[in-house]
Amino acid sequence: MKTYRERLALVTTTRGSILRDFYQPVILLFSFPAITYAAITYGSLLAGFALMTSVQATYLFYPPYNFSAAGVGLMNVAPFVGTIPVTFFAGYLDDKSIMWLASRNGGCLGDDIDDKDENWLGENAARGSSPVVEDRL
After folding, report:
1. Can you tell which superkingdom this protein's organism belongs to (predicted)?
2. Using CA atoms, how far apart are residues 58 and 74, in angstroms rounded to an integer?
């Protein structure tokens, strides 16, 4: 075990190569489809909201809008308020839909479910969040 002073060192050396630490998360990302789907969905929604806020900050100060800084800031209250009910009901509705899909499949939720069923939840999430993004653009 290292001494107390050795553990406080700002820079330490490693015996092995750290190259594996760079490519291993990429392999993990593409090994599990659920992780890939979650990453793409989360990244797409973040990109949409980043686009929305940059457009607001760029164009809403000028005519014909003439918003103040407070007005532009208050434009983001609606998406915030819209996510509050989703936070409480998303897990419950997801569990209910999984139980429904499993009952349609004879009580088992496995790989033999159609791709159409797997995309069902994601499509509804995209439909629910896209009006918020499109309304603000």
Report:
1. Eukaryota
2. 15
Q: Is 88 left (phi over 0), alpha (psi -120 to 50) or beta?
A: alpha
Residue 17 Rama label (left phi>0; alpha psi -120 to 50; beta) = beta
Q: Residue 137: name the closest of 43, 46, 42, 50 by CA.
A: 50
pLDDT digits (tens, 9 = 90+) for 73-83: 888 888 788 87
Mean predicted lDDT score pLDDT of the chain: 78
Do residues 98 and 106 lie in contact, with contact meaning Cβ atoms separated by under 8 Å?
Answer: no
Q: Are 117 and 101 a contacting pair, CB within 8 Å?
A: yes
Count Cα neighbours of 32 within 13 Å in the Cβ-side half-sphere: 8
Helix (H, G, I), strand (E, B) or coil at 110: coil
